[in-house]
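Propose amino acids for all 296 sites.
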């Protein structure tokens, strides 16, 4: 299999990507300034990829066949707006620039569902539900704007490059240890997100097991040569992170969604991964019902 370079290899998603890609036979190179890259990586290098020279040096040193770009300030409002926007957009530009200039065959950039604009303090209403890649993007904070710019940066390079590229919008990523009670990005547990629906309502009850995200990236890499260059994909669990149907929860917790929520019956999620299923043959395998066993 190929040599694959994973930026953000010590993050909640990066760790599962390193493990899954190594298990699939890839020679994985982890790039992360923070410790925690899994030992399955063949090599690990701390690097500041916001420096274009370092981005070039990393690509030139390892000469990967593929780059999975996950490195970013990963949550809204965890840093100042200026730092978040500057860091995430510079990372995306530098990785795309270095990868295309040095002839990397494949590149995947991590985006975010937050580009859609849900959670806006003065209210948000979808154009339709479930949300898919054709839904208008309406970012309202520095983080979601930086992720939309990262997508557009990738697509700009894809227009003139031979490198095959795509972006992925992974839903709320759940690391394996978080099913066991480790705190999530917001500091509460997954059980609390189920017990207190208002916590998960902020992200429209979306989620994705990090191992399913890694499987999706494996499927995407294998299909990249066959796809139009610059595609964008949602990736989410096949159900909502809720015990009650979203047709009931969304109108109560986010009233502006009421005209569109009626079709989200049973366990149906607010985000559609139908494009990834159709074009990549991928579906999420894991659910909170199987992973968070104490909640059954």
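Proposal:
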């Amino acid at each position: 299999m190929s040599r694959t370079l994973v930026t953000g290899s010590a993050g909640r998603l990066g760790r599962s990507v390193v493990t899954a890609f190594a298990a699939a036979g890839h020679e994985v190179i982890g790039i992360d300034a923070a410790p925690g890259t899994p030992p399955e990586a063949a090599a690990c290098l701390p690097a500041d990829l916001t420096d274009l020279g370092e981005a070039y040096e990393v690509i030139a040193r390892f000469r990967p066949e593929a780059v999975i770009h996950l490195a970013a300030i990963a949550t809204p409002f965890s840093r100042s707006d200026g730092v978040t926007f500057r860091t995430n957009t510079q990372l995306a530009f530098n990785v795309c620039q270095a990868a295309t200039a040095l002839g990397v065959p494949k590149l995947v950039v991590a985006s975010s569902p937050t580009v859609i604009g849900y959670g806006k303090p003065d209210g948000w209403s979808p154009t339709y539900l479930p949300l898919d890649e054709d839904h208008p993007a309406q970012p309202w904070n520095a983080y979601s704007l930086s992720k939309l710019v990262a997508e557009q940066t990738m697509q700009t390079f894809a227009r003139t490059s031979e490198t095959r590229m795509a972006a992925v919008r992974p839903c709320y990523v759940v690391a394996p240890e978080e099913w066991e009670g480790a705190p999530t990005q917001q500091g509460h547990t997954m059980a609390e997100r189920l017990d207190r629906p208002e916590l998960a309502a902020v992200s429209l009850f979306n989620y994705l097991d990090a191992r399913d995200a890694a499987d999706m990236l494996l499927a995407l890499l294998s299909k990249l040569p066959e796809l139009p260059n610059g595609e964008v994909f949602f990736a989410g669990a096949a159900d909502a992170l809720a015990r009650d149907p979203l047709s009931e929860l969304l109108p109560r917790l986010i009233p502006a969604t009421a005209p569109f929520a009626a079709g989200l019956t049973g366990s149906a999620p607010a985000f559609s991964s139908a494009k990834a299923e159709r074009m990549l043959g991928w579906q999420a395998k894991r659910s909170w019902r199987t992973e968070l066993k104490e909640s059954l």
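The first strand starts at residue 3 and ends at 7. The longest helix spans residues 81-101.
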